[in-house]
Write a structure and sequence with these properties.
Pathway: Cofactor biosynthesis; ubiquinone biosynthesis
Strand content: under 5%
Largest sheet: none
Protein name: 4-hydroxy-3-methoxy-5-polyprenylbenzoate decarboxylase
GO molecular function: 4-hydroxy-3-methoxy-5-polyprenylbenzoate decarboxylase activity; zinc ion binding
Shape: elongated
Region (Disordered): 174-197
Number of domains: 1
Order of helices and strands: HHHHHHHHHHH
Function: Lyase that catalyzes the C1-decarboxylation of 4-hydroxy-3-methoxy-5-(all-trans-polyprenyl)benzoic acid into 2-methoxy-6-(all-trans-polyprenyl)phenol during ubiquinone biosynthesis.
Length: 197
Amino acid sequence: MLMNSTGRRILRDRPRLTSKSLDIPRLRSLPSNTVGYNYAAWLDAEGVTPDTRAQVRYIDDEECAYVMQRYRECHDFYHALVGLPVFREGEVALKAFEFANTGLPMTGLAVFSALTLKKGEWRRFLDIYGPWAARNGARADDVINIYWEEELETDINELRARHGIEKPPDLRAMRKEAREARKREKEAKEAMNRATV
């Protein structure tokens, strides 16, 4: 953050991302292509608030503690920026993106939770979301240096382009399609079993 002019401003200003500082009702009223609207819509869809992030503890250095708090508070903006949901598969993909982008060891350790994914989820992570995360995280500007408070009315696609981030395929849609395919397969097997009886 110290090597980036925006990062230095964030460190100097020390803004917080909370329900009070962000005025979520106002964000909901912004045009649907804006960062603020997409963030509020993502919070609503996932049933979370900016205040669900725990306060940083056990870090004595005041500036380091602020950086970790800012990282925690920015996490939901990263979700909204790339469109990944909060269930485990989306979280693993986002943590892989964060690790490739920030190099924070805790994000790298969180990627190991991919080993607990179900077979279909694991396959999607290996084939789609893992490569997306590595590619985008490595090439994107450091997302910790986005001054979100100043970008709320920015077109979200313009912000992605400016920072070198491509949106991954819609994970919710892919999961729904996979569920429907399994349902059709099950129904076909049942129909076949009935026909042979």
